Amino acid sequence: MIPVSAADPAGPAPMGADPWPALLALRRATAAGWPDGPVSVDGAAGTRLVAGADGEFITGTNGPLVDLFLPILRAAAGRPYVVAHLGQSLDGRIALACGESRWVTGEADLDHNHRLRAIADAVLVGAGTVAADDPQLTVRRCAGDHAVRVVLDPARRLGPDFKVFADGAAPTLLVCRADLARPGERVGQAEVVGVAASGKGVAPADVLAALAARGLGFVFIEGGGVTVSRFLAAGAVDRLQVTVAPMIIGSGRPALSLPEIPTLDVALRPPTRVLPLGGDVLFDCVMR
């Protein structure tokens, strides 16, 4: 068990050059809730991270990784939590019209995606992302365990040959309308989970409830734009992260598409942090 204790801010040794092991340890240690007072965790290679009761960093070598992830870990501790992320061009495109998206954002954003997978209980993508990219959705660019992979395919349009269904690398769920699911059914190695229909699809709240019933409270929505937009429009996203690359595509698939609004005064204006991410810029927006 990873130790969690009230900590003397002057006590711990400074954190090592790589704080990620300590951030991972903090996520595991506080998954059930943030304790009263400061919390201290030990990571690999002698790293240690101490965070205050409100999640502020106290001791060690502060750096971009701690600045980026500590508020997320504090906000997600002990409750269901949804982080959505998109990487886009300056003109708001996530891919060409044909679906090609490798890579709009740079290496640092890829690393960031893998770290989000590593701290999440489940990583969720829509059927369109699977069809276009055939992603693995596993953790490969950083330390950490694979999340449960969730493919949202309400109309059951995907076959069993995609990597997420065939490779057996991590537990995988295919979520569809309940009228299209049969008890015990699988697509490749993925378990089929039926959710009550909502129009032609499924309601984001019902999807999240089905995942929470399986103990999957921290959900990372990795894409694509349609899926993130639907969860955002439904008020089902706690934190939206948009990484913007210094690239102009000029056409293609948009990042976000929400229902039309009558005036700008009802536009979403969330509290936002702006952080450098390699050669890109990350907008970290608190939605609720």
State which percent range the strand residues make up. Answer: 25-35%
- CATH architecture annotation of the largest domain: 3-Layer(aba) Sandwich
Beginning-to-end CA distance, first to last residue: 32 Å
Q: How many strands, which pairing sense, and closed or not: the largest β-sheet?
A: 10 strands, mixed
Question: What shape does the CA trace take?
Answer: globular
CATH level-4 homologous superfamily of the largest domain = Dihydrofolate Reductase, subunit A
Kindly state the number of beta strands: 17
The CATH class of the largest domain is identified as: Alpha Beta
Low-confidence stretches: 1-13
Average pLDDT rating: 90
Main sheet strand line-up: 9-10-8-7-6-13-4-14-17-16
Describe this structure in words.
- By secondary structure, the protein is of the alpha/beta class.
- It has two domains: 20-65, no CATH class; 81-286, 3-Layer(aba) Sandwich (Dihydrofolate Reductase, subunit A).
- It has seven helices and 17 strands.
- The chain has helices at residues 20-29, 64-76, 107-119, 127-133, 163-166, 204-212, 225-233; strands at 39-42, 48-51, 57-59, 81-88, 93-95, 122-126, 148-152, 172-177, 186-187, 190-195, 197-198, 201-202, 218-223, 239-244, 253-254, 272-277, 280-286.
- The strands form four sheets. The chain has a ten-stranded mixed β-sheet, sandwiched between helices.
- The model is unreliable at 1-13 (pLDDT under 50).
